[in-house]
Amino acid sequence: MFSQMQRKILILSNFGTYDKDLFLHPLSYIDSQRLSANMSLAKGDSRTRALSVRDDEEGHLICRSGDVLQERYEIASTLGEGTFGRVMQCIDHRRGGAPVALKIIKNVEKYKEAARLEINVLEKINEKDPDNKYLCVQMYDWFDYHGHMCISFELLALSTFDFLKENNYLPYSIGQVRHMAYQICLAVKFLHDNKLTHTDLKPENILFVDSDFTMSYNVEKKREERTVKSTAVRVVDFGSATFDHEHHSTIVSTRHYRAPEVILELGWSHPCDVWSIGCILFEYYLGFTLFQTHDNREHLAMMERILGPVPSRMIRKTRKQKYFYRGRLDWDESSSAGKYVRENCKPLRRYLLSEAEEHHQLFDLIESMLEYEPSKRLLLADSLKHPFFENSGVGEATGTKSWEGNRDISR
Question: Residue ranges of the Protein kinase domain (predicted)?
């Protein structure tokens, strides 16, 4: 018999990149204009009709605007679609007509099983955080509708990546970075305290609660620029989350946010999430990805250019000796790839946009998160006490600074 994690690996290996992403975190695929329009739907009486339960030839549930599922969820519109199923915006009549996101899985066993695995994690998070204080996306409900697994989520707004993209990759301000960083650290600390590793943290998986913005005109760049009104966020995508006692697959995380111990196949745990957060904060601050590559050797070369040499202990221990020669990274700096890394990467502190103290404090935090050795990498409990967050009021603004729980959801 396969373990839960092994089943998860087998299931997700059958997904394409887009479909896996949309399956695991559908809320980040919401079209912003469609979302804005749908959020303004009237919450009063609306026409409904009897639903004839039918599937199309691909296994999707056939449903239209006005259909009602479980005498509760009234279909309003489609937010996203993939081979796994569809994500619909619905009116939840048991929540006072509130809009929700409903993921409707195809009546296909491999997709149904993947949904069950995600539901298991989401249920346990809900159990230990019933008031949604710790900023993980909230699952409201799940049910099997004539062979279709359905999951109801709070309806969130754009991802922090999509907002960045739609804003021409204009970086977030230092104050915005601070508030988002604190919330991410708090949410992921909650997971770690409860023996869970997220494994796929990235800007696409950090969603704004509300992505409304103000506009201003940048005379120098001759363009309109957006400033998000509220930086309240939620962490999403628990389809790859792994409990400490579960089987740990060899490779986790999206490439650009992947920790060195994962690349070198040295085993991983909670610290791989911390590395990902360091990469995310850099991206928020600069507007571009720190490690823009799709190749392991080049990825390691970029790390060395930005952070210094890979520790000798890690080189000795790794089974990936093909990347090294005589205890050093086997990398030709005179090659075209070598030239690319040299021209596009530089020591971390040289990316500072200001010499102001708060900017140096942010980079000190990022450096602590990008320690090569997982055992030396910053613990998220310590990150919340970092000078970057001190005396800023960010903890009180988040409303969760005093939480000291150590609650176990892994059993």
Answer: 73-389
**CA distance readout (Å), 357 to 89, 183, 361:** 44, 21, 6
Q: How far, in Å, are 244, 284, 392 from residue 179 at the CA level? A: 29, 11, 9
Other CB atoms within 10 Å distance of the CB of residue 15: 20
- Rg value, the chain, Cα: 22
- For the stretch 65-94, pLDDT in tens is 999 999 999 999 998 777 778 889 999 999
Distance between CA atoms of residues 84 and 107, nearest Å: 9
Total number of residues shown for the chain: 411
Active site includes 129?
Answer: no
pLDDT over threshold 80, residue 411: no
Distance CA 277, CA 138 (A): 21
Angle between helices 174-193 and 271-286 (to 10 degrees): 170
User: Quick check: 35 pLDDT over 60?
Assistant: no
Confidence at residue 37, expressed as pLDDT on a 0 to 100 scale = 45
Catalytic-role residue among 200, 212, 295, 364 = 200
Cα–Cα distance measured from residue 24 to residue 241, given in angstroms and rounded to the nearest whole number:
10
C-alpha to C-alpha distance for 267 and 263, rounded to whole angstroms: 9
pLDDT confidence of 231, banded at 50, 70, 90?
Answer: very high
Please count the other Cβ atoms lying within 10 Å of the Cβ belonging to residue 65.
14
Contact 168, 226 (CB under 8 A): no
Distance from C-alpha of 287 to C-alpha of 289, rounded to nearest angstrom: 7
Contact 410, 197 (CB under 8 A): no
Contact assessment for residue 82 and residue 14, using Cβ atoms and an 8 Å cutoff: no
Give the H/E segment covering residue 279: helix 271-286
Is 103 annotated in a binding site? The answer is yes
DSSP conformation letters of 42-83: --S----B-----B-TTSPBP--TTBEETTTEEEEEEEEEET
Q: Exposed, middle or buried, 370 (CB in 10 Å: 0-12/13-18/19+)?
A: buried
Alpha-carbon span 111 to 97, nearest angstrom:
29
